[in-house]
Amino acid sequence: MISAEVAETVRRVDAFIRETVIPYEADPRNGGHGPTDELVQEMREKARALGLVAPHVRPDGSHVSHVETAALLKASGYSPLGPLAVNVMAPDEGNMYLLHKVATAEQKRHFLKPLVEGRTRSAFLMTEPDGGAGADPGMMKTTARPDGNHWVIDGRKTFITGADGAAFGIVMAKSPGGATMFLVDLPNPAIRIERVLDTIDSSMPGGHSVIAIENLRVSADQVLGEIDQGFRYAQVRLAPARLTHCMRWWGTAKRAHDIATGYAVKRHAFGKPLIDHEGVGFMLADNEIDLKQAELMIDWAAGVLDTGAHGTVESSMAKVAVSEALFRVADRCVQILGGTGVSRDTVVEQAFREIRAFRIYDGPSEVHRWSLAKRLKKLNTPA
């Protein structure tokens, strides 16, 4: 259920994206490793003037429902720059959610408040290279060892979104009894960016970095939540974050579909508009079906989370179904546009790249299917 207040905010976000943000897509500051912080802040100042920065967070710091968040983020995603402009982009949005749930009052003041206000960026340092944590976080190699009232952290991380330019990071490391999360101000001399990877996607400021952590000393008050509870907190963050990815990229896929539909109506071949050729018209019809099914899947999984359930199974199902449906939509749009579809004359080319990467973000489809199959085996194996 969406309140009248949130419904009005959705309408305002939609208008802001269409009227103010979309023209920024051609801005030269929108580069291969994401838009510059200067561009993001310029858009955010315009959003701030309209009261649209982090519209999913209430003035008291609490979040609107997951179903309401879905409506807001789908509207924001109509441009790849939209979630950044209104401050609902990953990894910041997921970090906001986790900090609200777990952080101390002082941690919220220092880290969460400026993040929600859209004045800083953050990073989430979990994934590792060299056979470390990835889809299987239990393989974590980065270590945190206690040293009096401090912890000493060593290891390497990779594909760390937004680390270049972030004001702080949530660092996850293996501790004596499990895994622990730590809040660290950035930059820090003990956290070194080895390189920023060149990747297929280009929507997130700072790109995705490979990072070395060497003799990082943090105090006890920088522990996020409880010691050794990092894996549990990762699930607190990741179940909703999988869904918010679905929400944002749904908006982008809808934009690509709208562009392809407009093209198919206007463009003629063999004596009639492209849309009148079944090969094209049926692709657009399939897009409508995939978009609606994806939307229903998002709202179903969000509704489960709103009941207070953990939602891991539902978010895994949605992540697989939605990411693959939206990729089919984007792929068809490229095909319908022909040569224009592989050019940067429209945003469809970027939508295709971003949504392809989305099939890997927060766990590739195969890992989620494997997890769901394990659950089926457990439920159906006699005791």
TrEMBL record:
A UniProt-annotated Pfam family: Acyl-CoA_dh_N
InterPro entries: Acyl-CoA_dehydrogenase, Acyl-CoA_Oxase/DH_mid-dom, Acyl-CoA_Oxase/DH_mid-dom_sf, AcylCo_DH-like_C, AcylCo_DH/oxidase_C, AcylCoA_DH/ox_N, AcylCoA_DH/ox_N_sf, AcylCoA_DH/oxidase_NM_dom_sf
Keyword tags: FAD, Flavoprotein, Oxidoreductase
Domain Acyl-CoA dehydrogenase/oxidase N-terminal: 7-118
Coiled-coil regions listed in the entry: none
Subunit details: Homodimer.
Residues in Acyl-CoA dehydrogenase/oxidase C-terminal domain copies: 228-376
Lineage, opening ranks: Bacteria, Pseudomonadati, Pseudomonadota, Alphaproteobacteria, Rhodospirillales
GO cellular component: a single term: cytoplasm
Family: Belongs to the acyl-CoA dehydrogenase family.
SUPFAM superfamilies referenced in this protein's UniProt entry, alphabetically: Acyl-CoA dehydrogenase C-terminal domain-like, Acyl-CoA dehydrogenase NM domain-like
GO molecular function: acyl-CoA dehydrogenase activity; flavin adenine dinucleotide binding
Full protein name: Acyl-CoA dehydrogenase
Domain Acyl-CoA oxidase/dehydrogenase middle as annotated: residue spans: 123-198
UniProt cofactor(s): FAD
An example Gene Ontology biological process: fatty acid beta-oxidation using acyl-CoA dehydrogenase
